[in-house]
């Protein structure tokens, strides 16, 4: 056959072949992450990679003491060093001298007192990073060192550490009959350690002065408008003269950015008139940003002879560290969820958040809820053991469902399939036992070539049931704004919802694809010239920002379909958009979205604001939460009872998710949350003896690695849609963090018979003498 004939035959075959199916898109599809290619190719714009002409470098001087009075600050030597362009202290803050995400009580620079190890004292801008660090070290600070208050129980009697006092908030929750008592009573004292969010990349940023006397801040911010307003207040500028541009966020499990370096960065840029960059070391990152609240919990559970809960009494004490930050919110969650997803007719909870000279605590996934979950699940294990009842069965006798009432008096109106979740993980087949042969020694808790002996290994099975609230609480005004614009077959989304790894950019594309049938959707990078969308935490952007995008897209859809509906004498509800084609219910109309657009530009802006909530009253009562999510986890562990080493063999997870919007993304978020919880259970604890952060690095702070991650099986996803949530979906990443530490601790109790009342679990807590 000649080449010409072959070419002609191939052309005919191509014409005869059916067109390939379009790539799947829209909700319910595992659309790849929008930034996946950039991260894979190394072109993702992290803040640490930014550059500008005439760049200066910044360094921050931090306090070596957890508690001290500042006698004097001498910056003379630092200012005289060659290459130094500016040195700023508290005297150089032209506006509001304090900051804070929840409560503004944290100084930009310490002035009279130092209240925690690593508190900023001064900042330097120089033409080289080494020069900046040396100049910061040359600032002479004379301290009068004071005894730190590091025990939160001592904070009640100690001298005030702050002008606002040591008590940040007290919530006395009263629900039911205080005289109620059960046939069986169990008590416990529990301690939860200080978990660091440990972001993949340490904090970094770039500040660029503007010709109008303002400044632009390029940051990996999760709340750009909040950061802008804080910065503007500190700089003494109108908010419109400060612009925050969000650069690539390298993962966020908290509020991500340390404001105590953002503000010095902007001050230095304004002072020098030059761009200024700061890339914090890992040590500075540990010292600067907030951590999970260390917590002390005392519990007493009352149950009847069948194991049904009668009353729960608890005292919860959160160590807020030196400043308040979001401790009030964390305490509200801890008190409200102190009994867990169980029906408790009588509950009496006392909750306090207090200041100490420890590092500041703040928002970390599942704040408040994670700490109480570890305690109430330990109590359920104790109760099951005392009654001689299977731990899963005891939990099933008490789990809540839709329509039950929280101890705060709020009715659970959202789907709460807790029993279904627990039954799913309970009935999932257990993993096989490891073989006692040399080639399988890697299965030992000590890891490859571990020191343990197979005969000392005990297997345990435990459970954790967790719950979290979604969005802000207690009257927080949750609102987000989004704009959808369509032109030339391409849709553009403008929404200041930051992509922190939760997948919002991908979700926004899927929403527009689903609503408008347009495959090519672009999400505009976030800055504060856009309307605010709020902070990227507690599943806000899936709910509030996703809802705003959906409403805007539906408004554009109406604009697109109305002319066609009018032309053919039918309502827009009788037209549908599928795979880029518009068709009517009777098949009379069939056209493409591109043809219907006819070169026009359509756009719409919409807001989403969930139903309001209310603060808890003086008795801890009130409808404080918009919605809740639930999770059940069964943990299987192997414990070397001689060495106290623990290996998490498997975690089975069942979760109510409302609706699966992106299966692959959802699974990744659940697995990440579970793994973070395993770290809190076994290894992660930022040690602060006498208020000093010990080993502030990733060598001294033990994060779980890929080798530590157990087999994670998502055995069930309950898709019972929450009718008040856009798409019916629930947030998924926080509640596995809440439940997995409790499940691991429960499994260690099962294996050892030891109480295990502290997280992370120390080896001595898992050793069985005479075992």
From TrEMBL:
Residues 1-17 have a biased composition (Low complexity). Residues 1-30 are annotated as: Disordered. It comes from the Bacteria. Residues 41-147 form the Aldehyde oxidase/xanthine dehydrogenase a/b hammerhead domain. InterPro entries: Ald_Oxase/Xan_DH_a/b, Ald_Oxase/Xan_DH_a/b_sf, Ald_Oxase/xanthine_DH-like, AldOxase/xan_DH_MoCoBD1, AldOxase/xan_DH_MoCoBD2, AldOxase/xan_DH_Mopterin-bd_sf. One of its GO terms (molecular function) is oxidoreductase activity. This is Oxidoreductase. It comes from Streptomyces calvus.
